[in-house]
Amino acid sequence: MTSETAPRMVEAFAHAAGSAAVRVPGGATGWVGTLTHIHIAPAASFEMEALSEAVCVAGRGIEGDRYFLGTGTYSPKPDVREVTLIEQEALDALNRNDPPLQEGPLRLLPGDHRRNLTVRGVPLNHLVGRRFRVGAVILRGGRLNFPCRYLEELLGMPVYLPLYNRSGLNCGIESGGVIRPGDAIELLD
Asked: Residue ranges of the MOSC domain (predicted)?
């Protein structure tokens, strides 16, 4: 479904996954990660563009990105995806064929996975229902992102199964600002 208006977003903590997790203590603590790459695409299927800095707008997304502009391809179900993140460690594992879920290593570059932010040292699966800071921006973890067959078609690579359960995190923006590669990432809650 391609739209000329922004998709119907759900506040991150109001999403079913986020609202359940926010009431439960736990998750990984004591870590500090790093933002390694920022990417946006102005519309669905467009090539991802690397940015040296990005303006994040609370309740909307990254200026110039398909989620901000409402020019992406969306499920008709409301969701939170103002910003999407993926771990560099997951990409490194694909490159090692770890676990061996395909015929050999898959090299996925930071712009290939179609997530906005590539991070290192950040346990994304533990951030559902949690607030965390990327540089000066505060994000709210909404739900885990799942790989899709569409990504396999775009890349021409069998990434669905190897990315299952490590395909990133969809987030809302609580407090906007400018982010840059190299910014520290830390848990707030």
From this structure: 49-188
| pLDDT score recorded for residue 167 | 83
Average pLDDT over residues 30-55: 93
pTM of the predicted model, to two decimals? Answer: 0.83
* Burial environment of residue 56 by CB neighbours within 10 A (0 to 12, 13 to 18, 19 or more): buried
**CB neighbours (10 Å) of residue 73?**
14
The pair of three-digit structure tokens given for residue 154, joined into one six-digit string: 């775009």
* Sheet strands side by side (includes 54-57): 61-62, 54-57, 177-179
What do you get for the CA distance between the two ends of the chain, in Å?
35
What DSSP assignment string belongs to 90-134? HHHHHHHTSS--SSS-----TTTT--SEEEES--GGG-TT-EEEE
**Residue spans of alpha helices (H) in the chain:** 16-22, 66-69, 88-96, 149-155, 160-163
pLDDT digits (tens, 9 = 90+) for 145-184: 877 777 767 777 777 667 777 889 999 999 999 999 999 9
Query: Which CATH number is 12-23+31-187 given?
Result: 2.40.33.20
